[in-house]
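Blinded run. Sample ID left blank on purpose so nobody reads anything into the name before looking at the predicted structure. Input follows.
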Amino acid sequence: MKPLIGVMGNRIPNRDPLFQGMERDYVNHDYIHAIEECGGIPVILPITKDPELLIPFIDRIDGLLLSGGYDIHPSIYGEAPHPLLQYADKGIDIVQLALVQYAISIKKPILGVCRGLQLLTIAGGGTLYQDISLAQKNPIQHFQNAKRWEATHNVTISPSSILAKNFGSEIMTNSYHHCCMRDCPESFRITAMASDDIPEAIEYKGSYQFIIGVQWHPEMMMVHSDSMRPLFESFISAATPRP
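Blinded prediction complete.
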């Protein structure tokens, strides 16, 4: 049976003059493509005011993919907004964090991408740097000036991790983020780092759960390469219902 994969959506203001002021719930098609290519059935989860409305969907899906998106409002983890903070929507953050925490509690396989890693961090009780410059004085380029599918920097992977089983000790990735992890939650461990010591991946410590967050965008790389296919295939495998 093919697993049903819920893809956490985002909300974007419409800038079309004909629909000025309206908002749209969406996900980039690259996520849909990656799930479909690796044997899953994608279902987009919208943004609602009340997270309880989506609990039945979390129960029904076999795996949850947390897509990338805007910054997480720092008040969620006890900080005031820094001048380098970009657009954030606290209402969306609250709803999505409640759903992520519920998905973790019922042992749902989860793959978090970029903002998805950051959601997992906050859901577990960790914190973020609102900009990489606050974490590292001499960072490498983490928001690349290249095609979205091109790998631009190296990531070192920890042994005895799910990522290591899929990729070995290192891999080249793309990069589109300006926030990063500050404090890792106790329930997770950092399993990949960039050369400037910025965390690039986390995994849940419980061996019975597939919960991984990556700071890069593997779904974008899947458009022109199979280099990230092992990650999606292992996620889909973990989410596949067993007879």
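Unblinding after everyone has recorded impressions. The first helix runs from residue 29 to 37.
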